[in-house]
Amino acid sequence: MRPGPEPVSIHARLPADVQVLERGWLSSNNVLLIGSEQAALVDSGYCTHSAQTLALVGQALGHRSLDLLVNTHLHSDHCGGNAALQARYPSLRTLVPPGEAEAVRVWDEDKLSYRATGQECPRFRINGTLEPGTTVSLGDASWEVHAAPGHDPHAVLLYRPDAGLLISGDALWEKGFGIVFPEMWGEPSFDEVAATLDLIESLKPDCVIPGHGAVFEQVDAALATARERLDAFVRSPQKHARHAIKVLIKFKLLEMKKVCAEDFQTWLSGAAYLREVHQRFAADRDLQEWSGELLNELVRSGAARREGDLLFDAP
Ligand SMILES: [Zn+2]
């Protein structure tokens, strides 16, 4: 099924060379930076949306080529369109955060999290890394690269000081931040989320382009919301774990749109991540019963719909 059209948001606060392609939830936003000499893109969305990514990027570029692609981190909803963009623009250079560069070079899907999370990402190549502490030219400007661990240990964020503009990936959204994946496999990381929020506060951005959702300027309010949410997770890691699994289930439903209960169960039992989180946070519960309960919560909240033996994604 083809995803419907999604808007291109041209925000008044954005410099002339910056366009945000605000995408639906299965894909991350894409940020296009079209300068006089170079056209760059930050993040490429999920693979099942890559035809739409190519269309949106192609439309914005007109006759120009895309020269540089960078990823804030390597989750499948942020780099799933990399391969399609590389095929469309053969001279495209691609830079990723250094922490997973080697895993990309040898395409180690276990290290890259796609297998464990039951998600897909077509193999792509890289030309180099985005080293924290350096700057990178995107469009017409120089952007600082900062390490932003927490949601993903290797994530970076990009900051353009002259415009007070931050590309935050999944480290900060208008209402929260991405699930803290390392916590799920037993690496304490809530402190890193807090440190990354402190870093964002110290940069004092006037405007944030998040990995998902609309561009926003109320940065203090967003930081306060994120810290409240983080405190709740620190108080109850179980709550965070349940939330994380529901996000993963919802992500898969968004991708599949419709699935029979048996096929869904097969996917659930193949997702190593789910088994690991179950072992760590709910080992006293039967796995099927526990995952069924989380699915029921999604149905009750209206995020999924059940009709007989079929499960549907619900917007
Ligand atoms: Zn992410």
Condensed summary:
By secondary structure, the chain is of the alpha/beta class. It contains twelve helices and 15 strands. 38% of the residues lie in helices and 19% in strands.
List keywords for this structure.
315 residues; alpha/beta; Metallo-beta-lactamase, Chain A; 2 domains; 7-stranded mixed beta sheet; 38% helix; 19% strand; globular; disordered N terminus; binds zinc ion
Strand content: 15-25%
Cα(first) to Cα(last) distance is 15 Å
Poorly predicted spans: 1-5
Number of strands: 15
* N-to-C order of helices and strands: EEEEHEHHEHHEEEEEHHEHHEHHHEE
Computed over alpha carbons, the radius of gyration is 19 Å
Strand order of the largest sheet: 1-2-3-4-5-6-7
Report the average pLDDT across residues. 92
Walk me through the topology.
Elements lengths: L7 E2 L8 E4 L8 E5 L4 E4 L7 H12 L6 E3 L5 H4 L2 H7 L4 E4 L4 H5 L8 H4 L10 E2 L5 E4 L2 E7 L8 E5 L4 E5 L11 H4 L5 H14 L3 E4 L8 H17 L1 H20 L1 E3 H10 L1 H10 L5 H14 L3 E4 L2 E4 L2
Parallel strand pairs: 4-5, 5-6, 6-7, 11-12
Antiparallel strand pairs: 1-2, 2-3, 3-4, 8-9, 9-10, 10-11, 13-15, 14-15
Helix pairs in contact: 7-8, 8-9, 9-12
Explain what the structure shows.
With 315 residues, this protein is an alpha/beta fold. Strands 1-2-3-4-5-6-7 form a seven-stranded mixed beta sheet, covered by helices on one side. The chain has a five-stranded mixed beta sheet with strand order 8-9-10-11-12. The radius of gyration is 19 Å and the shape is globular. The longest helix is centred in the last third of the chain and has 20 residues. The chain contains twelve helices and 15 strands. The N terminus is likely disordered. Zinc ion binds next to loops.
